[in-house]
Every structure is written in C-alpha cells, then in structure tokens.
Q: What sequence folds into this?
C-alpha cells in the first residue's frame, strides 16, 4: 500500500510539473505578444511625432514667408531737416501792431487769431483782437472777444471801456453805460471813461447825470475841447443856454478851430432866435467843416430861423 501511495504522489508531482511548464509557455507567449504590441505602438507614436515635426516646420516656413511679404523693407532714415529760427511772441505782436497801423486789419487779425491759440489765457491778446474786430465793424465779435478778456481778468479796465464803445456802435446805450460805469469804478481817474459814460447818458436822455459825468471828466481832462463841447450841448438840452455858451467858449478858447463847438453854439443861438449870432457861428463851423452845411439844412435846432434869407443863402452856398 505504501508503494502505491508513493507512485500516486510521483504521478501527481509529474502532472503538476507539466501543468507549470504549460502555463509558463502560455505566459511567455502572452508576454511576447504584449511586447510586440508595445513596439508597434512606439513605432506609430514615433511616426506621428515625426509627422508633427514636419507639419510644424512647414507651418513655420509658411508663417515666416507671409511675414516677409507684409513687412515693409526698411528704408534708410532721413536726416532731420534743420529747424527754422523760432519767431518770438513779441515779434508776432510787433508785426500785428505794424499791420494795424497800416490799416491792414484783416492781416493783423490773422496774427491775433494765432496768438490766442498759443496764449489763450492772455487777456491782452483778446483785447487787441477785439479792437481790430471793432475797426472792421464786426461789433458783436468784438464784444465776444472783450468778454473773453474780462473772463480772464474781471478788473480789466480797458476791456470794459472797449465793450462800451462796441455797444454804443450797436445802439445799445444802456449796456454801454453799464460798461463805462464799471470802468470808472475800476479806475476812477480815467477821464476818457467818464466822457464815454457821459455820452451814453446823453443818448439815454439822462442829461443831468450826463453833465455830472462830463464835470468828472474835466477834473482829469480840463483842456479837452471835446468834453467842454459835449457838456455845452447837454446844457442846451436842459435849457441852460447861458451856461452852454460858456462851455462852448471854453472849448474854443482851448482849440479855436474846433468846428463842433461853433456848430453847437450856432444851434444854441438859433433856439434863442438870435439870428445874427447863430449865422456867425454857423459860418465859422462850415469854414472848418463844410459838411455842416448839409447838417444845418435838416437840423430841427435851426427851424426857428430856417426861413431867414441870410440862413438860406448860407446853407445854399
């Protein structure tokens, strides 16, 4: 029995060894298959990588070619042109002033148009631009320019005066008075501002205030025939003929050939029906300014003597 058991054990051992050898062969065969698959995949990957490298190179070549076509060929740099000598602001202003004196107002204006662009915060440039526009009778544009000067400098006395003149030219006498009044407050010793203030009051028929303004002007301009003449005319409007004649005589004492004073004095005498004195002064006025002949023919101040033969002979020449 023991011998039989040993024989069975040996048979089972042999069978196990055969099974192991068989299994090892199958494992080896399977492992070899896996190796083959891996190698094939490696080859495929390498081929794909090579293809990608070729495609990438081709794309790079195409892009470089396109860039070369759109990139301009660099041109040699030009040497900078020599700078022209700079013209100073003062030179421009002198040139404009010269043109203004030559009455080349449009040319002078063109320079100031440039100056206000270069120095927009300079009120004097705006003022002078306004003065030129006023000479060109572009009164609204002049006022706008003066206003710009005042916006920069609210106490700009000359700008207030010049706005007043422009307003007067437009027949806006109340606005003119407001401006001249402002100017006299900024600079109380400016005789011209007081004269213009008086003239605007005269236009507004505020005769007593006008006389007061002329009197103030005479404090600073006692030898101005114009102020004495305007004062006299205002007194005529107030019916103060004697005081008016004194003012006219004062104007003629300062300037003996001042035609306006002779004319207004003649009108004052005509209103008083003093024919001889009226004609005497009217003749003097026409000697210095012949245009007064036409003025006298239609002036209502001479209505009381217009039918006098001597008056008719005088105005008919």
A:
């Amino acid at each position: 029995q023991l011998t039989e058991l040993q024989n069975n054990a040996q048979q089972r051992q042999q069978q196990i060894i055969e099974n192991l050898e068989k299994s090892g062969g199958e494992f080896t065969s399977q492992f070899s298959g896996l190796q083959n698959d891996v190698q094939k995949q490696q080859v495929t990957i390498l081929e794909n990588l090579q293809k990608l490298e070729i495609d990438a190179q081709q794309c790079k070549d195409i892009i470089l070619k396109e860039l070369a076509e759109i990139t301009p060929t660099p041109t040699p740099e030009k040497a900078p042109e020599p700078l022209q000598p700079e013209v100073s602001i003062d030179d421009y202003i002198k040139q404009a002033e010269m043109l203004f004196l030559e009455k080349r107002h449009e040319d002078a204006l063109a320079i100031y148009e440039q100056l206000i662009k270069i120095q927009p915060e300079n009120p004097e440039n705006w003022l002078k631009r306004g003065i030129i526009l006023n000479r060109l009778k572009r009164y609204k544009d002049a006022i706008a320019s003066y206003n710009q000067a005042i916006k920069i400098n609210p106490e700009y006395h000359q700008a207030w005066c010049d706005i007043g003149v422009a307003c007067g030219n437009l027949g806006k006498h109340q606005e003119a008075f407001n401006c001249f009044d402002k100017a006299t407050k900024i600079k109380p010793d400016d005789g011209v501002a007081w004269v213009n203030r008086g003239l605007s009051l005269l236009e507004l028929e505020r005769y007593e205030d006008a006389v007061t303004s002329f009197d103030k002007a005479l404090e600073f301009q006692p030898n101005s025939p114009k102020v004495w003449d305007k004062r006299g005319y205002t007194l005529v409007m107030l019916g103060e003929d004697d005081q008016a004649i004194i003012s006219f005589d004062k104007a003629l004492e300062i300037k003996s050939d001042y035609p306006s004073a002779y004319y207004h004095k003649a009108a004052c005498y005509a209103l008083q029906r003093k024919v001889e004195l009226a004609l005497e002064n009217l003749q003097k006025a026409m000697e210095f300014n012949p245009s007064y002949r036409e003025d006298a023919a239609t002036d209502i101040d001479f209505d009381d003597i217009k039918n006098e033969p001597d008056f008719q002979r005088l105005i008919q020449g």
In short: The domain at 156-221 is CATH 1.25.40.10 (Serine Threonine Protein Phosphatase 5, Tetratricopeptide repeat).
